Amino acid sequence: MLPYETIAAAESTMGRNLTAAEALWFRYSARMPDYLLYCHNIFFLFVIFTLVPLPLALLEVRLPSVLAPYKLQPKVHLPTSSFFQCYKDVMRVFLLVVGPLQLFSYPSKKFVGIRTGLPLPSAGEVAAQLAVYFLIEDYGNYWIHRLLHGRWGYEKIHHVHHEFTAPIGFAAPYAHWAEVLILGIPSFVGPAIAPGHMITFWLWIILRQVEAIETHSGYDFPLSPTKYIPFYGGAEYHDYHHYVGGQSQSNFASVFTYCDYIYGTDKGYRYRKAQLAKIREQRGAGGENGEANGWNYNEKFE
Ligand SMILES: [Zn+2]
Ligand SMILES: [Zn+2]
């Protein structure tokens, strides 16, 4: 809720005219309690995890031949029922765990100082804070994920996320409820260290979820804008982690590749990539209809 009655009062206090974005924010949030603004995140989570993976699921039903070369594990075809089951399980964890956590974590938002007022942050400030959030979360996530691949962590918790050896968009948050909670911690460390505006916090939640869906999409599209982000892992990078499964000691990072590179946990992935490149070069395989794709392509070569 904003401490001004009108836009004119806000402008007179700030000593300048509001920008178009600030006027929009004023109209939307001036009379809305901060608690309600914070709870928008629950709505974003439900909407994103319902709508964003949908086109990817439709591709699984009928894959146009022009997109076939980009499917990372072309031999895997999941039945429609497994998409519904996955969505149902994810929504159950959201309703019973993530939603209530959001409702009750409002005091922490107040404590760290995420603000809702005016002025709005500049685009540069938002971008810098989002970059910090992504880097911090990626580092924390790397170590938690690596620990979850220990015997106890995998058998008790992380095996659920690995039920999909060929990931799908809907399976990005498909995990044991404990994993969803544990991995939520690094997501909040960035905003706690460098608190910003509520809009930055919303953007962070939205972009992180969209990124997770892309990473689990099962497709490596060449025109994805994320291809231009330095050290970005992407769908192919994480797909290999799922393909290897529980024994995987490779590609633990969720967003970038630098942690795996520094700690030497990308060797299996790089070796397999080099092998596949060699096979395709020797065979001259052009990837017609995607039959030359997949981590297990021409296993006999090994
Ligand atoms: Zn894993
Ligand atoms: Zn995954």
How is this structure best described in words?
The chain has helices at 7-14, 20-29, 34-51, 54-61, 80-104, 106-112, 123-148, 151-156, 177-193, 198-215, 234-244, 258-262, 267-283. The protein folds into 2 domains: 1-32, no CATH class; 35-301, no CATH class. The protein contains 13 helices and no strands. 58% of the residues lie in helices and 0% in strands. The chain is elongated and about 70 Å long. It is mainly alpha-helical and 302 residues long. It binds zinc ion (2 copies). The site of one zinc ion has 5 residues, from helix 11. It comes from Cocos nucifera. One of its GO terms (molecular function) is aldehyde oxygenase (deformylating) activity. Residues 282-302 are annotated as: Disordered. It is a multi-pass membrane protein.
Shape: elongated
**Total count of helical runs of at least 4 residues:** 13
The first-to-last residue Cα distance is 63 Å
Question: C-alpha Rg, in Å?
Answer: 22 Å
Mean pLDDT equals 91
In terms of DSSP E residues, the strand content is under 5%
N-to-C series of helices and strands: HHHHHHHHHHHHH
Bound compounds: zinc ion
The amount of helix comes to 55-70%
The multimeric state of the shown protein is single chain
Q: How many domains in all?
A: 2
Main sheet makeup: none
Structural class: mainly alpha
Unreliable spans are none
Question: How many β strands by DSSP?
Answer: 0
Catalytic activity: a long-chain fatty aldehyde + 2 NADPH + O2 + H(+) = a long-chain alkane + formate + 2 NADP(+) + H2O
Organism: Cocos nucifera (Coconut palm)
Domain Fatty acid hydroxylase: 131-265
Main location: endoplasmic reticulum
